[in-house]
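Predict the 3D structure for this chain.
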Amino acid sequence: MQRIQKLALAGVAAAAVLTAGSSAVAAPVTRDSDTVTNLRAVTRSTAWEQLSALRLSFPTYHPEGLVVTKDRFYLSSTEIIEPTVKYPAPVDGYDRTPGRGVGHLFVIDRSGRLLKDIVLGHDIVYHPGGIDLAGSELLVPVAQYRPDSSTDIYRIDTRTLRVRKAFSVRDHIGGIVYDPTRDRLVGNTWGSRTFYEWTPAGRQLATWANPSHLLDFQDCQYLPAAKMACGGITGLTQTPAAGGAAATYELGGISLIDLRTRTIVNEFPFQQWSAAGHVMTRNPVKLAADGGVLTMWAAPDNGEETGGTRIYTWRAAVR
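Done. Predicted structure below.
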C-alpha cells in the first residue's frame, strides 16, 4: 500500500507540472506556486527519499533537458558522432572544433516506452539544451557544442509534435524558460554565466549576470510567479590523495531565482548519486509539489554509462 501511495503522489506532482506549464500562456499566475513555497523552505538537512528509477531501454546518448507531464516525459539529448577538440589557440573566435552530432527530443510514456524520436538541429548545430513547457509548446534551444557560438530556438507543439524554429541567437544558449508575467523568454549561456531576455519573437531585451557562482545550470523551469528553478553541477578539484592528480568532485544542487529582481531566493546542495556514480543534478532536473511535498525527477546518466539512462524520482516532505 505504501508503494502505491508513493507512485500516486508522483502522479499528482506530475499533473502539477503540466498545470503550471499550461497556465503560463493562458493566464499568468501572480502568486507563488506550491513548488516555489516548498523550494523556499528546503535546507541542507531536508530528507529526500528515492521513489523509483525508471530505466530507458532505447539509446539515450547524453541527456540535456527534461519536461514531465501527467502522461509523458520529454527528454532532449545530444548524440556525439565526432567529439569537439580544443584548439591550442582560439580560431575565428572559437576555442574548439565544432565536432559532429545529432540532436534529439525523445517523447516517452510514463512507463519508459519511446513514442517518438524528433531529430533537431542541422550541420554543426546539434546540441539541445535545457527545455521547458510554455502552455502546450516545448521550448528547445539547439546550439553548436562550443561556447560563444550560435543557437536556434525551437517550439514544439505537444499535441501534434510539429516543430517550428522561432528565432536564432548569436551565442550558445544552454537552457530556456518563458516568463508569462513579463511576456519574456529567458535563456542561459554556456556555463550559465550570463542570462539573456527576449520577446517571444526573439528581440533581445536584456542580459544579466548569473547571481549564482556555485553551480553551472544544466536545466531550468519556470515557476509561478516570476521564479525559475535551475538544477546544476560544479566539478571541483580534489586533493591528489582523493583519487589522483586529475581527481574531481561533483557538487550538485538547485537554485531558485526571482526573475524580476534577478536574485537568488534559495539555493541548496543535492548530493544523491546515480547508478553510474554521478550527482543527481548533473543533467536534466524538473520539480513539482503537492501541498508540502516536493517531487524531483532527474536523469543524470548517459546511455552508455553503467546502468544506462534512468529517470529517478525523489520526494521530500518539506512543510
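The chain has one domain: 2-317.
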